[in-house]
Specification:
Layout lengths: L11 E2 L2 H21 L5 H17 L4 E2 L2 H16 L1
Parallel strand pairs: 1-2
Helix pairs in contact: 1-3, 2-3
Length: 83
């Protein structure tokens, strides 16, 4: 029998610092692009959809990430979009 069929799944811990660093980079890029030209309204909807989907993915059994890191990182990007 394989490990998957025995019910043992390997848990992948995702580093929260990398996610926050990526969100900071994305927020800076969005801020710079927003200063150069108006951002489309649909971008905000896409950001919210990606946040919800990411929460489902990291809430699964296989992948783990500190939910606060994802929530605060995504909020940083959304605030940068509003700004």
């Amino acid at each position: 029998m394989s490990q998957q069929s025995e019910g043992k799944t390997q848990i992948v811990e995702l580093p929260a610092r990398w996610l926050l660093a990526g969100c900071v980079v994305a927020a800076v890029l969005v801020s710079v692009l927003g200063a150069l030209r108006p951002l489309p309204v649909w971008l905000l909807g896409v950001e919210m959809l990606l946040t919800v989907l990411a929460l489902f993915v990291v809430g699964s059994i296989r992948y783990r990430l500190d939910k606060n890191a994802l929530t605060y990182g995504a909020a940083l990007v959304v605030v940068a979009t509003f700004w």
